Amino acid sequence: MLLAAPLTLLALFFLLPLLTVFGQSFAAPDGPLGTYARVAGDSALRYSLIYTFQTAAIVTLAALVLSYPVAFLISRAQGRWLVIGMVLVLVPFWTSAVIRSYAWLVLLQRRGVVNEIMLALGLIDRPLRLANTDLGTHVAMVQIMLPFMILPLLSAMRGIDPSMLRAAAILGANPWRQFVNVYLPLSTPGVGAGCVLVFISTLGFYITPALLGGSSPMIAVAIEQQVSRLLDWPLASALATVLLVLTCALFMLYERLNRRLAGAGEGR
């Protein structure tokens, strides 16, 4: 009985819309599978899917590289410095992603702050095209996704027992071996959780790619174009369904690998 209310809400506001989108993807004039045939046969849509997953992988990797040392420093902080570090990580959540995307558009435009600084320093002779490029899109998306990577890493790192590193040092391990053989494996749950969270969130990004989009639209932008400009709801629903299926498949693969790694760790 206690689960009746939440299950009803989940069915009404989550499962029903998903089923509606899934059913609408078959409502094509050229047959039930016509929209999926168009997705498979349209090179632009296929490239948009590939570009979306490629962008998600780049953003996830960049966010991990930038977030790991930040999370490490915050995890070692104590007292006031720990509070300051946590506040700096959480402050971006208080600002809308739309505002941050527009801020990056202002920073990266031809007469924006970035170009003006490089011109003043003599690093470039003329303004560079940074907005509406893949690079600008990746930079903005990485900045927006950093907190989502830092927090899982920080949670895992705060749970690492410092005596493990001291024991490795007593046994003769240098700092590099302490990190590679002890600290990094113990922090892998945070790495995995952060990468999955950032990767899946990036797949559905719309605002930032729409404002700073580069050579090809991400799939969320392509879906919006099909709905608002071309009024092709069946094709938009098919694209959304394909993206959802691929995302679920990747998540299931991650869960399977995670269970295998956990089992191997317990076996050792």
From TrEMBL:
It comes from the Bacteria. GO terms for cellular component: plasma membrane. GO terms for biological process: transmembrane transport. Its main location: membrane. Keywords: Cell membrane, Membrane, Transmembrane, Transmembrane helix, Transport. PANTHER family: ABC TRANSPORTER PERMEASE PROTEIN (PTHR42929:SF5), INNER MEMBRANE ABC TRANSPORTER PERMEASE PROTEIN YDCU-RELATED-RELATED (PTHR42929). This is ABC transporter permease. It comes from Ancylobacter defluvii.
